[in-house]
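Section 5.1 Outputs to date
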Amino acid sequence: RPPISPNSEESGEDVQGVASRRDAALIADTASAFAPGGVLPVRTRAVSGMRLTMDMEPVIRLGTRGSPLALAQAYETRRRLAAAFPDELGKEGEGVQINIINTSGDMRLDKALSEIGGKGLFTKELDVALLGNEVDFCVHSMKDVPTFLPDNTHLETMLPREDTRDAFISPKYKTIEELPEGTIIGSASLRRQAQLLAKNPGIKCVNFRGNVQTRLRKLDDEVVDATLLALAGLKRMDMTDCITKILDWDEMLPAVAQGAIGIQVRSDDEKTIKYISALNDKDTKICVECERSFLATLDGSCKTPIAGQAKLVDGKIKFRGLVASPDGQQIFRAEREGPVSEHMELGRSAGEEIREEAGEQFFADLMEYVQDIQAANTKPTKAAAK
C-alpha cells in the first residue's frame, strides 16, 4: 500500500476501531428499511419520512446518502464525534441525528454517471438540505464531491484516509492482463475504463452501477466477468474477502480523493464547525486538496477519465496524475514533488502541464465524445483525440 502520510493508520479508523463492523447489521437493516415496504429497525425511529435518530434530543444533524457504504461512513463520523465530545453528544453519539437523503445519483442507476450529469448527482440534494437548514453537516465520499461547492458552504474536515487503491474482483481471472478478448468488465467509471483498455484493448466495458452489494451480486450471477471497486469501501464494510487482487498505482491510478471522507458545513455555522473541526486529519486534507486542485485545473468530473493521487513522504508531498482518452489509446501523465506548503500549486501545475501537452483540442474532442456516446455502456471505438 502506498503511504498516505507518516501518521496515517492502517485502516483509517483509529479512534473507534473498524468503522462498520459493530453497526453492520444495523446498516443492512436500515438500507432495507428504506426500500419500498421496508420496516425501520428497532434502534431507530422515523422522523419526517427519511430521518433517523436515537433517544437523546439531537444536538447536531448529519446528512448522508442512504446506501450501506454511506451509512457506514455516517456511523464512523458519529462515533468519532462521540469520542471527541462524549459529554455533549453522548458516549454513543446519541446527540448526533442521522438524516438519510435520497440523491438523484442513487435513484438513476440505469445510466452511467457521465450521461446524467456527473458526480454532483450524489451531492445536490445534500447541498439543498444543508442550505435549507434541514441538516447541520453532510458526510461525503470525497471522490463524489464536485470541485466547486455552493456559496456559504465549505469542506471543513477530512477524516483519516483509507487505502486509496482499487480492487480487481473476478471469480474467473486473477489479473487484468490475463483477461481474454471479449471479457465483459462491469464499470461505469471512465477513469477505470480508460486504464483497463490501455492495458487490454480486447475487453468490453459495460455500465455497472448500484451499491457494493448489488455489484457483487451481479458478478455472482455472471452478468459480467469482472469488476473493479474502491478498496476503501470494501474495507469500511468488512467485505475484503471478495477481492481477487489489489491494484497498485502503477496498475490503476485511483480517482481524485478516493478513500477520503469529507464533511461539508455551512460557513457561518460556528456551533457545528466547533464539533466538526475537531475531527480533521491534516495530512489527509492536504493530499485531497492537492488532488482536487489538479482536478479543478482540468475542469474534471466523472465525465472525463482523470486520475490523481498525492501522498506525504519524508515531509514532502508527491503527486501523480493522468488524463486519458476513453479508449485508453492516449494517456497524458504528470508528476510533482515539493514542500507541503505548496500542495495546491503542485496540483495546479500538474494539471496545467497536462493541458499544455494534450492541447485544448484533445479536451474539446473528449467532451464531444462523452456527449455523443452512452458513456461506459459499451467499449469505446472512437478515439477521443487525434
